[in-house]
Amino acid sequence: MPTAVVTGGAGFIGSNLSRELVRRGWQVRVLDNFSTGKKGNLEGVEAEIFEADITDLEATRTVMQGADYVFHQAALPSVPRSIADPVASNRNNIDGTLNVLVAARDAKVKRLVYAASSSAYGNADAEYKSEELPARPLSPYALTKFVGEQYCRLFTRLYGLETVALRYFNVFGPRQDPQSEYAAVIPRFVTAMLRGESPVIYGDGEQSRDFTFVANNVEANILAATAEQGAGEVINIACGSNVSLNRLAELINAELGTDLKPRYEPSRPGDVRHSKASVRKAKELIGYEPLVSFEEGLKETIRWYRNLPA
Question: CA angle, corner 99, sides to 93 and 101, nearest 5?
């Protein structure tokens, strides 16, 4: 059975990925500094846990030894956080990613799958954001994730380390932290509305996102690691549709049986106006198809938050 290292494996996406890999019989090593990840996310997951930081090259090398695959999920997330502290974003997302690539190269892993970000597109003038569009990052976070992609491609060309960069769009689902001041929109909306509070929208609410349930990203990672094609490529992972934030609030109200009107605040710097993915390349290169629709995923996510302890 293959051995995989999941960096950031105690985080939202990383823990869902680690859980599924173990379910499929993989040997999993989780590398996480627990700055944003939570040990509780790995409850019941038979994985080997290494509490270390990807900015520590020697610790990262130790975890990589003998691994077949690396799923690099670790990052310091959030556009607003990166604007407030660009140095920390650079250190974690660029320096840390370079360490992961060096350690993976030296350990001779078969393939590394990198969690890239659709924020690299910025406000690209196209209905569907495809991989051929130029990068126009609007925040330090977006820039750091784009630089990570370029490092991945470089390591494939220079050193023969097979890498695939998956550009995630707006991922949501169980184990996504709603408590952080930088929390993503769906956990913020759902948990606020479960408390009977109006969701806060920055801007007019007509901005839209290609919301993608986390099971789709998990499947895409496993496909990208094991597909014959894809080495050195950047690939969108999403559903190929988008929903406005106003519509999102309506759908959550309908599911909860509430009628909570959004509260509007000024737009935030660095926020992208519209985001909708072309997933043609993902289908062609790694055989990706979205497993769970936005509507199905939203219902499952609301159920999960409803069942959380108060």
Answer: 95
Structure token pair of residue 4: 């995989």
| Model pLDDT, residue 182 | 57
Of 141, 151, 168, 288, the active-site residue reads 141
CB 193 within 8 A of CB 187: no
Integer distance in angstroms from the first to the last C-alpha of the chain?
A: 40
pTM of this structure: 0.94
Give the CATH number of the domain where residue 33 resides: 3.40.50.720
Identify the domain containing residue 20 by its residue range. Answer: 3-171+213-240+277-291
The answer to whether residue 270 sits within a structural domain is no
Give me the residues of the chain with pLDDT under 70, please. Answer: 180-183, 310
**Which residues is 51 bridged to in the sheet?**
32
Looking at residue 274, its amino acid is H
- 305 given a catalytic annotation: no
Distances (CA, A) of 97 to 90, 165, 257, 282: 10, 12, 44, 23
198: nearest Cα among 267, 246, 261: 261
